[in-house]
From TrEMBL:
GO terms for biological process: DNA recombination; transposition. This is Transposase IS605, OrfB, C-terminal. Keywords: DNA recombination, DNA-binding, Membrane, Transmembrane, Transmembrane helix, Transposition. The chain crosses the membrane at residues 183-208. Residues 162-267 form the Probable transposase IS891/IS1136/IS1341 domain. One of its GO terms (molecular function) is DNA binding. Residues 293-358 form the Cas12f1-like TNB domain. In the C-terminal section; belongs to the transposase 35 family. InterPro entries: Cas12f1-like_TNB, Transposase.
Length: 383
């Protein structure tokens, strides 16, 4: 018998041309769900409503199923102190995917879910790679999880989580295509799919960090603590927005090129070997940016997941010293921005070279312990 593995994936389905009235209704639904979440957080734990009937006094009118799901979603985010946004959610009994076969043999897809007025059926725009999952779902070969109504930019989507069982052999038959991403100071992120590279300069981030550091020093001298905290939040929001922008472009780039796995460095590595530590020193300044890097990796990870692309963390050892073409290892880092190989003569931008090595996972995937941690986290998100 073939070995199967279970995988939870999220499919992002674009609502097809919703009318202005419908968009307004979705917005109201989202606003009320968020308001409810924040009121709920304001209630002492033992007093919190457990059922939709109990929850009604804390909310403007919402469908019971949305209230129930909101309670579950809020409780799942134990650390949340405030919700900037909580999207309306639907459990598997209240959200349905439907397919209609057209006369010309094509298919029209629809989803339906309860709203403020009544249950609505909305046409969705299904991407090619999503069809097989939806077909599988309708055929009973996949288990439907929760769905969320989400606005992204100006578009409305439903994010549908489903559990699929993949045949191991079948999965291995599909050729994998890897993208490697190198993070650094000069180039903030370099995403490379052998022969095709996307650069994001680190200049913007460096400028913003310098700018805020200067303002911080000024305020510190004055002892203006509240202003300092405000400043910190502002910087945080600024970097978060930047990371959303970059991760979005990276994942779009991966989608366009049919990438199946994105590989990034394991930044968590604590048990570095001597040579690794020596190599890391080049990036002493990276620690300053470390949370920004972590966040960027998280964002790339979840956006990739939505696009059905896997994410793997690799051991970063030697990725900047090795020639990505012939595997020769230099003893010292090249002085400039170019990697020149003493053996095969290849000349490549050092960060592209590193990204290509990350894509090939030349030092292997990161330690088991860390991989397991990630899986645990993924499971938690999926639950
Ligand atoms: Zn070489």
């Amino acid at each position: 018998m073939a070995e199967t593995t279970k995988q939870v994936i999220t499919i992002k389905l674009k609502l097809y041309a919703p009318t202005k009235a419908k968009q307004d209704m979705y917005q109201t639904l989202a606003n009320r769900t968020t308001d409810f979440a924040n009121r709920y957080l304001g209630v002492e734990k033992p007093m919190r409503p457990k059922t939709s009937a109990d929850a009604k006094p804390y909310s403007e009118p919402l469908p019971s199923v949305v209230l129930c799901q909101a309670i579950r979603d809020i409780e799942a985010k134990k650390k949340a102190k405030e919700f900037k946004r909580l999207w309306p959610g639907f459990n598997n009994q209240n959200f349905r995917v439907e397919k209609e076969t057209m006369q010309d043999g094509g298919a029209a897809w629809k989803v339906s879910f309860p709203t403020l007025e009544k249950r609505v059926g909305v046409p969705i725009q299904v991407e090619k790679y999503q069809v097989k999952y939806l077909e599988l779902l309708l055929a009973g070969g996949a288990k439907q999880g929760t769905a969320q109504l989400v606005k992204c930019g100006k578009q409305w989507y439903t994010h549908l989580s489903i559990t699929v069982w993949l045949d191991k052999d079948e999965r291995e038959k599909k050729p994998a295509k890897y993208m490697g991403i190198d993070l650094g100071l000069i180039e903030l992120a370099v995403a490379s799919i052998l022969g095709c590279t996307l650069f994001f300069s680190g200049a913007e981030l460096a400028y913003i960090r310098r700018h805020y550091a200067k303002l911080r020093r000024k305020l510190q001298k004055k002892g203006a603590h509240r202003a300092l905290k405000k400043l910190g939040n502002k910087e945080y929001r600024w970097i978060t927005a930047m990371n959303h922008r970059i991760s979005h472009r990276i994942v779009e780039f991966a989608k366009v090129h049919g990438v199946t796995v994105i590989r990034m460095e394991d930044l968590r590595g604590t048990r570095w070997t001597k040579s690794q530590r020596k190599e890391r020193r080049r990036d002493a300044g990276r620690s300053l940016h470390s949370w920004a890097f972590f966040q960027l990796r998280e964002f790339v990870g979840y956006k990739a997941k939505l696009a059905g692309i896997a994410m793997e963390l690799v051991n970063p050892e030697l990725t900047s010293l090795t020639c990505s073409r012939c595997g020769e290892v230099r003893t010292s880092r090249p002085a400039g921005r170019w990697y020149t190989c003493p053996r095969c003569g290849k000349i490549k931008h050092i960060d592209t070279n590193a990204a290509d090595n990350i894509a090939q996972a030349i030092s292997g995937l990161s330690e088991e312990k860390q991989v397991r941690l990630t899986q645990k986290k993924r499971k938690k998100q999926a639950a």
